[in-house]
């Protein structure tokens, strides 16, 4: 029995080292009203500013829910939505996110029969490259929510809606809330995130969120006829609880209306879901004389904690340290011990399910480079989310290598995309690139020196652009190069000597070089070439 409580830990109000909140708690919030590309506004219940979504996504169509679903209880946030009839995967890019910190991401969905089809819709949500949740939308007037806690490994993240054949994906709102460094760190790291199952505030009459909760977690009221409410107007100190439940949540609690036993339960989506539970306790009554409140905690009959006494006006947490699974319904029972004079209490609880991050995201240097290229040339199509992963959704015009961990971009084919301007420096950051085809565009300026740093390049096709100047000597560094196509530009000068030699030796196909200055005619390259040719005879 003693060992069975190994997986729950009580956090008494000792060791309280709390990072100073240097910035306003709202700093870093991203609050997006999806499908509203017209105006930003302040939400009256939270005083948070919501912004139009067109700066986070460039695909999809805006819609309003049907008017018969609109009444005063439907929040403004749900009135419009963005839907994605085209493409298998459509993503929002959220930036900036605080690198190496946990963030909360929450999406809401209200169908409101916006398309007049009275459909039931099912689609998947991904965070970055990993499956987050399958959304099943069956009630057109309900607001569905998905929420997860995740570690930011880069300074941006993406939320993707994936069409799995169950109808057109759509989304009503998207919110990102950064936590302090280290929060929920036991549950969230580079290899795992957690998905919210439920978060409840016992004995409350209203939902608590921002500003009472500086992280804008949503704490829903939870009451049962067999419970009675305890509350306090005094602040509950949460500095000893690493989950930092807000005082407004901890100031209400429930106790059994009669008897000495309190039970609450929830359903899991699947018995295979691996869950973590966090129970929050604070004593709200000043216990006088010899009165005591001591109880045992069991989960589905299994003892989890014995002889527990909540501290007075201080938030304490009992949380799972390893995930549990195996049931479709879970029940906690708090049972007063025989010598306790008072029945058990509980103030709040949270349940999360484990989300293993098994998919590897593309090399972050490659991602940064592609994001910069996308933005520089205003490229759209399916250029959203991770460039290479999952494999089924690789960006148009890219090929990746998955033999490496992380995956790397090996090919870029941007032929005939109507691209203009100079060749951008970010191409040089794609260190694993083997094939670069920028042909049949309107690139102008000179061939940049930095292309010579792409040491794995096998094919470089710059043909039929508006490039000028000389061919840089740095291209001689491309020792693996087998095809160099420079046709249809306005170069002058000559081709660098070593390239000519390799062409001569049949190691490099040097295509349609400009008329007057190609290898073998004039210039030093030509001379070398002729010498080489003679000595070959
Ligand atoms: C909260 O508790 C900590 C110790 O756990 C203490 O240092 C701090 O002063 C308390 N804050 C308030 C407002 O009571
Ligand atoms: C994100 O990180 C990249 C490099 O990793 C950097 O170039 C870029 O400026 C950063 N963006 C923000 C918004 O911090
Ligand atoms: C994030 O953590 C990684 C590895 O621990 C480190 O290399 C990187 O500098 C950190 N980034 C920031 C912004 O703290
Ligand atoms: C308001 O609309 C919601 C969602 O359509 C519905 O559930 C609710 O009953 C409506 N309330 C009123 C007062 O009409
Ligand atoms: C993440 O946390 C889990 C559970 O605590 C642990 O098993 C895993 O090794 C951690 N992974 C990393 C990369 O820290
Ligand atoms: C509490 O103490 C009072 C007197 O101090 C005593 O009468 C009473 O029986 C005690 N109650 C319990 C449950 O021990
Ligand atoms: C609660 O305690 C009572 C005795 O005080 C016991 O009969 C009952 O089985 C316990 N319930 C649970 C769920 O442990
Ligand atoms: C509480 O747990 C203790 C220690 O396991 C046990 O002796 C006691 O019977 C339990 N009481 C109840 C009411 O479950
Ligand atoms: C890149 O991928 C496309 C589509 O999968 C394929 O047709 C093409 O042959 C690949 N190119 C190279 C050079 O591997
Ligand atoms: C780029 O794509 C075009 C047509 O899609 C194809 O003809 C060309 O061979 C590709 N280039 C490379 C380097 O694979
Ligand atoms: C290049 O630009 C010119 C003038 O804007 C246009 O007529 C031509 O079609 C473009 N060529 C390519 C390959 O995009
Ligand atoms: C080609 O480049 C020249 C100068 O470099 C510029 O004047 C011209 O407009 C460009 N043509 C196209 C079609 O972009």
TrEMBL record:
Entry keywords, A to Z: Kinase, Leucine-rich repeat, Membrane, Receptor, Repeat, Signal, Transferase
Coiled-coil regions, chain positions: none
Name listed for the protein in its UniProt record: Receptor-like serine threonine-protein kinase
Pfam families for the chain: LRR_8 (PF13855), Malectin_like (PF12819)
Molecular function, one GO term: kinase activity
SMART domains recorded: LRR_TYP (SM00369)
Organism, as annotated: Musa troglodytarum
Cleavable signal peptide: 1-22
PANTHER family for the chain: OS01G0810800 PROTEIN, OS07G0107800 PROTEIN-RELATED
Listed Gene3D superfamilies: Ribonuclease Inhibitor
GO cellular component, one term: membrane
Subcellular location: Membrane
């Amino acid at each position: 029995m003693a060992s069975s409580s190994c997986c729950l830990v009580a956090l008494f109000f000792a060791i309280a080292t709390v990072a100073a909140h240097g910035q306003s708690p709202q700093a870093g919030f991203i609050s997006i009203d999806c499908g509203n590309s017209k105006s930003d506004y302040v939400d009256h219940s939270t005083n948070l500013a919501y912004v139009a979504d067109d700066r986070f996504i460039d695909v999809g169509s805006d819609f309003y829910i049907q008017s018969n679903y609109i009444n005063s209880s439907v929040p403004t946030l749900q009135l419009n939505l963005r839907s994605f009839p085209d493409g298998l995967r459509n993503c929002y890019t959220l930036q900036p996110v605080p690198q190496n910190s946990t963030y909360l991401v929450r999406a809401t969905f209200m169908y409101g029969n916006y398309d007049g089809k009275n459909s039931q819709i099912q689609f998947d949500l991904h965070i970055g490259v990993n499956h987050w949740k399958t959304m099943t939308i069956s009630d057109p007037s309900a607001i569905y929510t998905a929420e997860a806690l995740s570690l930011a490994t880069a300074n941006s993240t993406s939320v993707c809606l994936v069409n799995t054949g169950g109808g057109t994906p759509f989304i009503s709102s998207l919110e990102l809330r950064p936590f302090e460094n280290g929060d929920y760190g036991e549950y969230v790291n580079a290899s795992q995130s957690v998905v919210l199952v439920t978060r409840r505030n016992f004995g409350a009459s209203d939902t608590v969120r921002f500003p009472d909760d500086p992280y804008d977690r949503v704490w829903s009221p939870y009451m049962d006829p067999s419970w009675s409410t305890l509350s306090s107007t005094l602040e509950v100190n949460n500095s000893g609880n690493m989950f930092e439940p807000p005082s407004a949540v901890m100031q209400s609690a429930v106790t059994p209306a009669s008897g000495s036993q309190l039970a609450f339960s929830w359903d899991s989506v699947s018995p295979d879901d691996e869950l973590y539970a966090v129970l929050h306790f604070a004593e709200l009554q000043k216990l006088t004389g010899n009165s005591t409140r001591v109880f045992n905690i069991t989960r589905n009959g299994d003892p989890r904690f014995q002889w527990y006494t909540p501290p007075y006006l201080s938030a304490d947490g009992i949380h799972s340290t390893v995930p549990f699974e195996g049931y479709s319904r879970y029940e906690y029972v708090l049972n007063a011990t025989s010598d306790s004079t008072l029945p058990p209490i509980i103030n709040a609880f949270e349940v999360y399910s484990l989300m293993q991050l098994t998919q590897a995201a593309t090399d972050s240097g490659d991602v940064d480079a592609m994001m910069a290229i996308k933005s520089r040339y205003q490229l759209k199509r399916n250029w959203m989310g991770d460039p290479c992963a999952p494999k089924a959704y690789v960006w148009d015009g890219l090929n990746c290598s998955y033999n490496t961990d992380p995956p790397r971009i090996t090919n870029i084919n941007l032929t005939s995309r109507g691209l203009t301007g100079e060749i951008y420096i970010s191409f040089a950051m794609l260190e694993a690139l083997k094939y670069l085809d920028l042909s049949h565009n309107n690139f102008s300026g000179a061939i940049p020196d930095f292309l010579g740093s792409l040491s794995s390049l096998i094919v470089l096709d710059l043909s039929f652009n508006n490039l000028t100047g000389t061919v840089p000597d740095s291209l001689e560094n491309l020792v693996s190069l087998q095809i160099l196509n420079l046709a249809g530009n306005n170069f002058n000068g000559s081709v660098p000597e070593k390239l000519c030699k390799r062409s001569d030796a049949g190691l490099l196909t040097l295509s349609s070089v400009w008329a007057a200055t190609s290898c073998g005619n004039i210039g030093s390259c030509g001379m070398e070439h002729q010498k080489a040719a003679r000595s070959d005879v």
